[in-house]
NADH dehydrogenase [ubiquinone] 1 alpha subcomplex assembly factor 4 (Daphnia magna), 205 residues
Amino acid sequence: MGNIAIKASRKLMRPLKNFAVEARAERVLAKEKPTPAPWHPTTQKRIDELIKSNPDLIDGQLAKKDELLGNRLKQIYVTSRDKPIIPKNIEKTLPAERNNVESPEFGYQEPARITKGKLSIRQALLLIGKHHQDPVIHNAVSLANEYTIHPRVSENILKYFKTFEYYQPPKVKTHIQAKDYITFKSLPTAQDKDKPLLGENSLKS
Protein backbone atom coordinates (compact mmCIF):
# COMPACT_ATOMS: atom_id res chain seq x y z
CA MET A 1 0.00 0.00 0.00
CA GLY A 2 2.88 2.34 0.79
CA ASN A 3 4.48 1.80 -2.62
CA ILE A 4 1.24 2.65 -4.38
CA ALA A 5 0.93 5.89 -2.41
CA ILE A 6 4.53 6.86 -3.25
CA LYS A 7 4.02 6.19 -6.95
CA ALA A 8 0.76 8.18 -6.97
CA SER A 9 2.43 11.14 -5.21
CA ARG A 10 5.28 11.10 -7.74
CA LYS A 11 2.85 11.19 -10.64
CA LEU A 12 1.00 14.11 -9.05
CA MET A 13 4.21 16.06 -8.34
CA ARG A 14 5.71 15.50 -11.79
CA PRO A 15 3.73 18.30 -13.54
CA LEU A 16 4.74 20.74 -10.78
CA LYS A 17 8.42 19.84 -11.14
CA ASN A 18 8.32 20.23 -14.90
CA PHE A 19 6.42 23.52 -14.80
CA ALA A 20 8.38 26.24 -16.64
CA VAL A 21 11.57 24.19 -16.68
CA GLU A 22 13.04 26.01 -19.66
CA ALA A 23 12.35 29.45 -18.17
CA ARG A 24 13.98 28.50 -14.88
CA ALA A 25 17.01 27.04 -16.67
CA GLU A 26 17.44 30.22 -18.74
CA ARG A 27 17.20 32.30 -15.57
CA VAL A 28 20.03 30.32 -13.96
CA LEU A 29 22.20 30.51 -17.09
CA ALA A 30 21.64 34.25 -17.42
CA LYS A 31 23.44 34.89 -14.10
CA GLU A 32 26.98 36.22 -14.46
CA LYS A 33 28.35 33.91 -11.81
CA PRO A 34 26.57 30.74 -10.75
CA THR A 35 25.88 30.13 -7.10
CA PRO A 36 28.67 27.94 -5.69
CA ALA A 37 27.89 24.72 -3.92
CA PRO A 38 27.84 24.93 -0.12
CA TRP A 39 30.94 23.85 1.75
CA HIS A 40 31.11 21.11 4.30
CA PRO A 41 30.45 22.37 7.85
CA THR A 42 34.01 21.56 8.98
CA THR A 43 35.49 23.39 5.96
CA GLN A 44 33.22 26.37 6.53
CA LYS A 45 34.29 26.47 10.20
CA ARG A 46 38.00 26.55 9.28
CA ILE A 47 37.48 29.31 6.72
CA ASP A 48 35.54 31.41 9.22
CA GLU A 49 38.32 30.99 11.80
CA LEU A 50 40.94 31.98 9.19
CA ILE A 51 39.00 35.10 8.21
CA LYS A 52 38.57 36.11 11.84
CA SER A 53 42.26 35.63 12.63
CA ASN A 54 43.54 37.44 9.47
CA PRO A 55 40.87 39.90 8.27
CA ASP A 56 43.31 42.27 6.50
CA LEU A 57 45.09 39.49 4.58
CA ILE A 58 41.90 37.92 3.30
CA ASP A 59 40.33 41.22 2.26
CA GLY A 60 43.51 42.33 0.49
CA GLN A 61 43.84 39.12 -1.50
CA LEU A 62 40.23 39.17 -2.58
CA ALA A 63 40.13 42.82 -3.56
CA LYS A 64 43.59 43.20 -5.10
CA LYS A 65 44.46 41.72 -8.48
CA ASP A 66 47.90 40.10 -8.73
CA GLU A 67 49.52 41.72 -11.77
CA LEU A 68 52.57 39.46 -11.62
CA LEU A 69 50.54 36.31 -12.03
CA GLY A 70 48.48 37.92 -14.79
CA ASN A 71 51.60 38.85 -16.77
CA ARG A 72 52.98 35.33 -16.40
CA LEU A 73 49.77 33.84 -17.71
CA LYS A 74 49.96 36.10 -20.77
CA GLN A 75 53.45 34.80 -21.58
CA ILE A 76 52.35 31.16 -21.67
CA TYR A 77 51.71 29.76 -25.13
CA VAL A 78 50.98 26.21 -26.16
CA THR A 79 52.36 25.07 -29.50
CA SER A 80 51.97 21.66 -31.10
CA ARG A 81 54.91 20.00 -32.85
CA ASP A 82 53.02 16.98 -34.11
CA LYS A 83 52.92 16.32 -37.82
CA PRO A 84 49.67 17.28 -39.50
CA ILE A 85 47.32 14.37 -40.05
CA ILE A 86 46.82 13.75 -43.76
CA PRO A 87 43.44 12.19 -44.48
CA LYS A 88 43.71 8.84 -46.18
CA ASN A 89 42.06 8.13 -49.47
CA ILE A 90 38.84 6.35 -48.61
CA GLU A 91 38.19 5.19 -52.17
CA LYS A 92 39.88 1.79 -52.57
CA THR A 93 40.90 0.47 -55.95
CA LEU A 94 39.65 -2.86 -57.18
CA PRO A 95 42.09 -5.79 -57.02
CA ALA A 96 44.09 -6.38 -60.17
CA GLU A 97 43.76 -10.16 -59.87
CA ARG A 98 40.17 -11.33 -59.86
CA ASN A 99 40.72 -15.09 -59.73
CA ASN A 100 38.93 -17.15 -57.15
CA VAL A 101 40.92 -17.81 -54.00
CA GLU A 102 41.53 -21.51 -53.54
CA SER A 103 40.76 -22.94 -50.14
CA PRO A 104 43.78 -24.31 -48.25
CA GLU A 105 44.42 -28.03 -48.26
CA PHE A 106 43.93 -28.50 -44.52
CA GLY A 107 41.25 -25.84 -44.08
CA TYR A 108 43.54 -23.10 -42.80
CA GLN A 109 46.48 -21.07 -44.05
CA GLU A 110 49.68 -22.85 -43.06
CA PRO A 111 52.32 -20.69 -41.37
CA ALA A 112 55.48 -19.92 -43.31
CA ARG A 113 57.68 -20.59 -40.27
CA ILE A 114 57.13 -23.28 -37.65
CA THR A 115 58.35 -22.56 -34.14
CA LYS A 116 60.92 -24.95 -32.76
CA GLY A 117 59.22 -27.64 -30.71
CA LYS A 118 55.93 -27.28 -32.61
CA LEU A 119 54.43 -29.17 -35.54
CA SER A 120 52.02 -28.24 -38.29
CA ILE A 121 49.31 -30.61 -39.45
CA ARG A 122 51.31 -31.47 -42.56
CA GLN A 123 54.41 -32.30 -40.52
CA ALA A 124 52.38 -34.39 -38.08
CA LEU A 125 50.87 -36.41 -40.94
CA LEU A 126 54.32 -36.94 -42.46
CA LEU A 127 55.63 -38.05 -39.07
CA ILE A 128 52.82 -40.57 -38.63
CA GLY A 129 53.21 -41.79 -42.22
CA LYS A 130 56.94 -42.42 -41.85
CA HIS A 131 56.38 -44.39 -38.67
CA HIS A 132 53.64 -46.41 -40.35
CA GLN A 133 55.95 -47.32 -43.27
CA ASP A 134 58.89 -48.42 -41.11
CA PRO A 135 58.34 -48.36 -37.33
CA VAL A 136 61.85 -49.65 -36.60
CA ILE A 137 63.84 -47.00 -38.44
CA HIS A 138 61.38 -44.17 -37.90
CA ASN A 139 60.83 -44.66 -34.20
CA ALA A 140 59.80 -41.96 -31.73
CA VAL A 141 63.37 -40.86 -30.93
CA SER A 142 64.52 -40.52 -34.55
CA LEU A 143 61.36 -38.64 -35.51
CA ALA A 144 61.79 -36.33 -32.52
CA ASN A 145 65.34 -35.50 -33.64
CA GLU A 146 64.22 -34.97 -37.22
CA TYR A 147 61.36 -32.61 -36.38
CA THR A 148 63.08 -30.99 -33.34
CA ILE A 149 60.39 -31.93 -30.84
CA HIS A 150 60.54 -33.61 -27.46
CA PRO A 151 60.63 -37.43 -27.56
CA ARG A 152 57.66 -37.59 -25.20
CA VAL A 153 55.65 -35.52 -27.68
CA SER A 154 56.50 -37.81 -30.58
CA GLU A 155 55.60 -40.85 -28.46
CA ASN A 156 52.20 -39.35 -27.61
CA ILE A 157 51.56 -38.49 -31.26
CA LEU A 158 52.34 -42.02 -32.41
CA LYS A 159 50.30 -43.51 -29.57
CA TYR A 160 47.13 -41.40 -29.63
CA PHE A 161 46.92 -40.11 -33.22
CA LYS A 162 46.35 -42.20 -36.32
CA THR A 163 45.66 -41.33 -39.94
CA PHE A 164 42.29 -42.20 -41.37
CA GLU A 165 42.12 -45.51 -43.21
CA TYR A 166 39.36 -46.73 -45.50
CA TYR A 167 38.09 -50.24 -45.04
CA GLN A 168 35.88 -51.57 -47.83
CA PRO A 169 33.41 -54.21 -46.73
CA PRO A 170 33.79 -57.61 -48.46
CA LYS A 171 31.49 -58.25 -51.40
CA VAL A 172 29.99 -61.54 -50.20
CA LYS A 173 26.42 -62.31 -51.09
CA THR A 174 24.57 -64.01 -48.28
CA HIS A 175 21.43 -66.03 -48.95
CA ILE A 176 18.65 -65.28 -46.54
CA GLN A 177 16.51 -68.38 -46.09
CA ALA A 178 12.88 -67.77 -45.45
CA LYS A 179 11.39 -69.56 -42.49
CA ASP A 180 8.59 -72.01 -43.05
CA TYR A 181 5.26 -70.75 -41.95
CA ILE A 182 1.93 -72.37 -41.33
CA THR A 183 -0.87 -71.79 -43.79
CA PHE A 184 -4.44 -72.72 -43.16
CA LYS A 185 -6.18 -73.92 -46.32
CA SER A 186 -9.51 -74.38 -44.60
CA LEU A 187 -10.71 -74.30 -41.06
CA PRO A 188 -12.40 -77.41 -39.64
CA THR A 189 -16.14 -77.24 -39.08
CA ALA A 190 -18.22 -78.68 -36.25
CA GLN A 191 -18.97 -81.79 -38.33
CA ASP A 192 -15.30 -82.42 -38.95
CA LYS A 193 -14.39 -82.09 -35.31
CA ASP A 194 -14.05 -85.80 -34.75
CA LYS A 195 -12.34 -86.44 -38.09
CA PRO A 196 -8.57 -86.49 -38.31
CA LEU A 197 -7.04 -83.39 -39.87
CA LEU A 198 -5.85 -84.80 -43.18
CA GLY A 199 -5.61 -83.51 -46.69
CA GLU A 200 -6.88 -79.99 -47.20
CA ASN A 201 -7.91 -79.59 -43.57
CA SER A 202 -4.44 -80.43 -42.22
CA LEU A 203 -1.85 -77.87 -41.19
CA LYS A 204 1.01 -77.56 -43.60
CA SER A 205 4.31 -76.29 -42.37
Summary: Residues 176-187, 197-205 have pLDDT under 50 and may be disordered. The CA atoms of residues 81 and 87 lie 18 Å apart. The radius of gyration is 50 Å. The first helix runs from residue 2 to 17.
